[in-house]
Design goal:
Length: 107
């Protein structure tokens, strides 16, 4: 009886367990390695990984953004990680509700 219950419950626990990555927080997307993350504040999109590079637009708070990979750059709010959008702009990780770079592959 106990072994039958374990056979039924263990596969369910595997599905409910978050994916292993550098951290936590993003959802898987259909494209391999890409993630969908939600902004927690207005998020400026930059041409490079510094706040002095060209600003190329902005997402409002609570926008879902598709991210491709992460890289390091200018240290902002104690965090050096920047996420590359699938459209080619960089957004600092502090703009997201979760630490999305921790689920992304390195660029």
């Amino acid at each position: 009886m106990l072994s039958s219950l374990a056979i039924i419950i263990l596969p369910l626990l595997t599905v409910a367990t978050p994916a292993v990555g550098r951290g936590r927080g993003a959802w898987s997307n259909a494209a391999a390695g890409e993630q969908l993350c939600i902004t927690s504040m207005p998020a400026v999109m930059y041409s490079n990984t510094t706040t002095t590079s060209d600003a190329q637009g902005m997402y409002v708070s609570a926008t879902t953004v598709q991210l491709k990979c992460y890289t390091s750059g200018e240290l902002v709010k104690g965090n050096k990680y920047w996420d590359l959008t699938t459209s080619g702009q960089y957004i600092h990780e502090s703009a997201f509700k979760e630490e999305c770079a921790f689920k992304l592959q390195a660029c």
